[in-house]
Amino acid sequence: MPVHTMTPITATEQSSIVRCASCRAALDDRTARATCPNCGGLLAVEHTLALPRGEALRSRFDERLGAESFRGTAAERSGVWRFRELVLPGARAEDIVSHPEGNTPLVARDPVADFAGVHDLRLKHEGHNPSASFKDRGMTAALTQAKRIGALAVACASTGNTSASLAAYAAQAGIPAFVLVPEGRVSTGKLAQTLAYGAHMIRLRGDFDDCLELAREASERLGVYLVNSLNPFRVEGQKTIVLELLQQLGWQSPDWIALPAGNLGNTAAFGKALREAHTLGLIDRVPRLLAVQAAGAAPFAAGFSDDFATRRRVRAETAATAIRIGDPASWDRAVDAIRFSNGHVAAVSDAEIFAAKRVIDGCGVGCEPASAASVAGVRLLAQRGIIGAHERVVAVLTGHLLKDPDAALAARVAGGLGAEEPLTRDEALDHLARVLSGS
Ligand code: F0G
Asked: Which of 43, 294, 350, 393 is the most exposed place for a label (fewest CB within 10 A)?
């Protein structure tokens, strides 16, 4: 197929089913349930479509990077729907709610590699998505599903990014959105987005875990479609972070993929993506996942240290508010992701997170605090000799610097920058001259 043409987006009936991971019940892929109606377990999408394997499938995905990825429909330009056979093949073109999203850069910056102590470090910057975090990749799939099932309203609990993304995609779909956020713990940028995009926001006296419990109960009782990352279609969209970075590397697996971990939806999505990419022959070697938590919110890291013998819960506390989560919902499937990829889970202190953030910000890339946990985790494992200095590592930056402008300013002011008093015109000229002459 010439590179400038594209397989049209056509729906394929019966191309997916939804199955409960606990009781194995199978549901139609048009289910409006975010969790199993029989046992409350986590649901997973299984694609039943016959697909070509290996090189044939790689070429199909690569051909879509032609001219239509620049001038086609939103779905044709999307870095999520490029992989639609592995996302939601049953979606009709008219149901797809796409901004578009994805197509995020993979960048290399020497100061960050030097800081982390690995030579070949790339940063997959998911802050370049339309609402400035990776959540848009899951949300395009979830809102597409909401449209397919005719949802009257959508809802989520959030530490801020899911709510901003939900608000944006619900606005595009024309579906009312309700978000529950923990009072006083959501950064300014995320609050501003959520309100500006027109979601109905409820600030709860409690933390994220309380918000999620309430969101689950409200969706059960009121029939509102729940689009937290326990929703199986969110997972399908977020898998494309991995698929896209593998494609950017010419389908040559890196040794490690590092990501920040909170509610563990993304860790689960990464594991599912790697399993499918390997089964379909897109890659011949599975990279190791490194899930990184903030030390004050690290039940999964504690679980890893005893081979996940028991499920842990903690009262979470960290300045990286996006991952301030003590009772992660996708625990079981994240355990599977770490085991399948022979992965690792680490905990890093807030000081280590902010040290990494200063380096990422200072080289002109920038990210929000939680995102810097991935680089802090790589540094920790390199220091411990678990990641070798010559291994190839991709660290995912999950959100944009402007998500949390207060944290960005605080990090610089703490470093002695930006704290100066305002100057008059003459003082400013004097100041410039002194800085330039080094006196
Ligand atoms: N990084 C950022 C910037 C996030 O916003 C989140 C989660 C994560 C990492 C962790 O991903 O939960 O899938 O393990 N934010 C959610 C939210 C909880 O509501 O925006 P996870």
From this structure: 350
